[in-house]
């Protein structure tokens, strides 16, 4: 397990607002790579070398070259400003570690579902769990050089709601991974604005209905 801290960037003493985002997806879609590429500190990785013992439980179809795997979670950090820090958690992709996901989702603002378009079915569980928890998310297609699919084909395969953003990315590239996170933050902001407008409309409508209710005379 890699937990070295020798090159960690110091966290400012004024930072008192921690924000959490989770990166989820199927086995071998690039979650560890994304956290590693965008984190300002050396990420905490719980990667272990894959052995023959895991061949019976881990589906290596499409990822035969994979030699290590996350056995708990990945952790990275991005300083947003003097007071706010973004914490990134990468969830393990194998089915035998899915029991960890509910804990990782606790307290998160939203999630990135990273997918390999060659193995879209591997992402169904991630989307199902996020929807079950009511956690906002976006979908990012990591570029593995596979066959091209249209946005509509991907949306239909994943049964995505039209309001869920879908973007392409290269998880190895820092700027591309940052764009994915920015897209998620913008999506979360749009949802927050929509909820605020809905609450205002409900309040206004309730006041209007109260004003129209005739007073009862004794």
Automatic annotation (TrEMBL):
The keyword Nucleotide-binding applies. It holds the Pfam family ATP_bind_1. Gene3D superfamilies: P-loop containing nucleotide triphosphate hydrolases. Keywords: GTP-binding, Hydrolase, Nucleotide-binding. One of its GO terms (molecular function) is GTP binding. It comes from the Bacteria. Signal peptide: none annotated. InterPro entries: Gliding_Motility_GTPase, Gpn, P-loop_NTPase. Belongs to the GPN-loop GTPase family. This is ATP/GTP-binding protein. It comes from Streptomyces sp. gb1(2016). The lineage of its organism: Bacteria, Bacillati, Actinomycetota, Actinomycetes, Kitasatosporales.
């Amino acid at each position: 397990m890699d937990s070295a801290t020798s090159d960690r960037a110091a966290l400012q003493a004024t930072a008192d607002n921690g924000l959490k985002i989770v990166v989820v997806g199927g086995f071998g879609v690039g979650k560890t790579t994304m956290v590693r590429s965008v984190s300002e500190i050396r990420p905490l990785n719980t990667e272990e070398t894959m052995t023959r013992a895991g061949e019976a439980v881990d589906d290596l179809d499409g990822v035969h070259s994979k030699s290590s795997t996350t056995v708990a979670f990945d952790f990275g950090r991005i300083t947003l400003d003097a007071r706010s820090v973004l914490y990134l958690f990468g969830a393990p992709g194998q089915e035998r570690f899915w029991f960890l996901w509910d804990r990782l989702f606790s307290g998160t603002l939203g999630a990135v579902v990273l997918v390999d378009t060659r193995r879209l079915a591997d992402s169904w569980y991630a989307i199902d769990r996020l929807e079950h928890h009511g956690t906002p998310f976006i979908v990012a297609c990591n570029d593995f050089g596979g066959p091209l699919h249209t946005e509509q084909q991907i949306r239909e395969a994943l049964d995505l709601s039209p309001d869920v953003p879908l973007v392409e990315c290269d998880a190895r590239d820092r700027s591309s991974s940052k764009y994915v996170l920015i897209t998620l933050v913008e999506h979360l902001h749009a949802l927050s604005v929509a909820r605020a407008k809905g609450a205002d409309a409900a309040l206004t409508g309730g006041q209007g209905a109260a004003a129209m209710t005739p007073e009862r005379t004794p």
